[in-house]
Amino acid sequence: MPASVDDDWSDSDEGTGAGMETDVLLGVPDGSVETDADIKDAAVSRIGGLPAFLPSRDPPFPSCQCKVCSDPMELLLQVWCPFEDSTMDRALYVWGCARSTCQRHAGSIRAWRGLRYNDAYAAKLKKKKTRNAGQHKTITSPPPNPTSSANPFSMKTTPEPTAFGLGYQIFGDPATNIPDQPKKDVNDCSDAENDDSVSSEDLLITAMTRTRVTDSFWAAAPSYPAVYLSTLSEYIPQPSKGKAPANVRIEDPIEADGKAGKDAIWALETYENSVEIDSVFDRFTKRVGFTGEQCLRYELGGIPLPFASDKVFELLFLAATQAPLPVTKADFKVVQPTKRSYSTASIPPCPCCKSSRVFECQLMPNLINVLRKSVDDKHLDVRRLTDEQRIKAVQDALKRNKEPGSRGMEWGTCMVFSCGNDCCLDDGGQEDKECWREEYVLVQWDE
Question: What is the pLDDT of residue 321?
């Protein structure tokens, strides 16, 4: 059965502690990708650009085709995201169609998971486990568990800037001015540092040296300009407690004038009743507003942040069954706000291993802005335009948006659910050393 989370979901942020760091990692843009080496490196996460694949064989080109118009789509995101202490290199790829006629249709956003067995890292991990078992020690790092609070990007110790520009930039950061480093034997586990565990940094460096991208038909795929995708932890700040200046007096209209007070109350009630406020969307905007530049939210096995009260929200956040309301005055009672429970029961299981899928990440609205800006910066330098040229550029853009073949993505968020076991099976159901699998995407459209 698909996993169900016991945590209640409400229309307020009461359940989210203020002034705290959450388990969510945020992907933010971090400048244009300038080097061809980074473009071809699967360990460098990026917004846009061409994909850098892990499998030794290029994936079939139809992987990027829109299921609505059948045209090839641009890569929206590529994320380097191996499971902690897994022997598999791992990357996630998301493509999206920008044709206006394909918006709000299933299949216009597609996500794929690429895996590749890392021989050097597997040998090192095996040697470490054997040594720990011989010393009758408990292995410090449990097997990958997508429902645990551990994050696949987290370092074993406090992240510090390294020669590879890691630190908190685990998604991928342009490495500049890299000093020469002494070479290490990847099979040498005698260091005290290796006694703790094999670090995620070692896994990343090993993968970088083995990444291979060939010139193939993928080189001709449509693409946005590539932008580095860096990561930072989500922090919910303490709510500000504004104080009125000492010389300011606040008057209550009810106390000042009874009649005016009644009019004010009536006006307020009329306004509240005449405006339909989507509390889910309001919660979304407040949460995202703490870090507005976020393009990706990553929390493997976590709970997505819903964009609005729509069918997708109803599928994922189930309302508790309530007793029928009383019809007589004697049975009158106060009805508490409805609490919703998050569940993945509606998400199809992995078609390969039949295990439940879990939430992994979601694309955020600012990603559309970043992709649009990267295209605008590439083709048009608005700083060098006159006022008349700027007005004409805006008019042309509005005219193009009304044309049948206009382009522009209109989603609010795209949620990616991946195999909870991170399986790597061949067509016969046997363990394989590399695979390419499509994962499930739910889209909440911007109505």
Answer: 74
Work out whether the CA dihedral 178, 181, 187, 188 comes out positive or negative: negative
DSSP summary character for residue 218: G
Q: What backbone torsions phi and psi does residue 177 show, to the nearest 5 degrees?
A: 50, 55
Dist CA 59 CA 57 (whole Å): 6
Lowest mean pLDDT among 104-118, 200-214, 258-272: 258-272
Orientation of helix 200-210 relative to helix 119-134, angle to 10°:
150
Burial of residue 264 (CB within 10 Å: 0-12, 13-18, 19+) is middle
Rounded to whole angstroms, the Cα distance separating 17 from 21 reads 9
Contact of 29 with 173, CB cutoff 8 Å:
no
Question: Which among 22, 19, 20 has a CA at the least distance from the CA of 238?
Answer: 19
- The helix/strand/coil state of 327 is coil
Name the CA dihedral angle for 380, 382, 387, 390, rounded to a multiple of 10 degrees. 50
Using the 8-state DSSP alphabet, how is residue 431 labeled?
B
pLDDT (tens digit, 9 = 90+) per residue, 58-108? 899 999 999 999 999 999 999 999 998 899 999 999 999 999 999 999 999
Residue 274: which pLDDT band, with cuts at 50, 70 and 90?
Answer: very low
C-alpha to C-alpha distances, 143 to 35, 148, 257, 301, 357, nearest whole angstrom = 36, 10, 69, 14, 17
Q: Cα separation of 239 and 229, whole Å?
A: 29
Backbone angles phi, psi at 219, to 5 degrees: -65, -20
User: Hey, what amino acid is at 262?
Assistant: K
Report pLDDT for 150.
43
Sequence-distant (≥ 6) Cβ neighbours of residue 260 within 8 angstroms: 253
Give, in degrees to the nearest 5, the angle at Cα 139 between 136 and 142. Answer: 150
Confidence band, pLDDT 50/70/90 cuts, at residue 188: very low
Q: Which residues pair with 26 in a beta bridge?
A: 232, 297
Token digits of residue 235: 């922090």
Of 77, 44, 95, the residue nearest 211 (C-alpha): 44
Buried b or exposed e, range 288-300, using 16+ CB within 10 angstroms: beebeebbbbbbb
User: Residue 192 is encoded by which pair of tokens?
Assistant: 């005290």
Q: Is 401 helix (H, G, I), strand (E, B) or coil?
A: helix
Place of tokens 């360990």: 43
Q: Where would I find the H helices in 16-74?
A: 36-39
Output the DSSP codes for 134-180: HTT---SSPPP-TTSS--TT--SS-----TTS-TT-TT-----SPPP
Taking the CB of residue 135, how many other CB atoms lie within 10 A of it?
8
pLDDT, tens digit, 9 for 90 and up, residues 412-444 = 999 999 999 999 998 888 999 999 999 999 999
